[in-house]
Write a structure and sequence with these properties.
Blueprint: H1 3-8, H2 13-34, H3 55-79, H4 104-119, E1 123-126, E2 131-133, H5 136-146
């Protein structure tokens, strides 16, 4: 019975994955032990780059990146000098009217109820100039009977 089958019986899919990894690792170690250390597989036609980037170049690029970050931070501090100060963020004066609605649904229901009561009742629009309102059904009946004065093509 091989190692993979033995580990697979112990648990579910997670145990199988762990078993497969351990089995592969053990086979790899066995293959390394069989090959002498000095003997590395070589391909005579392949050349390998033997040089790395110079250490001074890596340091120079890191210095440029660090100095760029510092320049950006200093420039932002100069452009926005009050951005880092902790000041109260509330308004000095109260908000002008109209204020935000705390319950828009209730406000809309109250508005519609008020408008509906005005549509179906008598009342004064401007008492001084004697302008009154009447229910919408009554107004439509009168308009249908009399028509609109000075309306093009209107017949009384």
């Amino acid at each position: 019975m091989d190692d993979l089958a033995r580990v697979g019986r112990l648990g579910g899919p997670g145990a199988r994955v762990v078993g497969a990894l351990l089995f592969g690792l053990s086979n790899r170690m066995k293959r390394r032990r069989l090959r002498p250390r000095d003997e590395e597989p070589r391909n005579a036609d392949t050349r390998v780059e033997t040089r790395d980037a110079p250490l001074w170049l890596i340091g120079f690029l890191a210095g440029i990146a660090a100095s760029l970050i510092i320049v950006v931070v200093v420039a932002l501090r100069l452009i926005f000098p009050h951005a880092v100060q902790d000041q109260p963020k509330q308004l000095a004066a109260p908000m002008p009217e109209p204020r935000l609605q705390t319950s828009p649904v209730m406000d809309m229901r109250a508005y519609r109820a008020d408008a509906e009561s005005k549509l179906h009742s008598y009342g004064w629009v401007d008492r001084d100039r004697e302008i009154a309102r009447e229910p919408i059904d009554e107004a439509m009946k009168r308009l249908a009977e009399r028509g609109i004065r000075d309306w093009p093509g209107a017949k009384p």
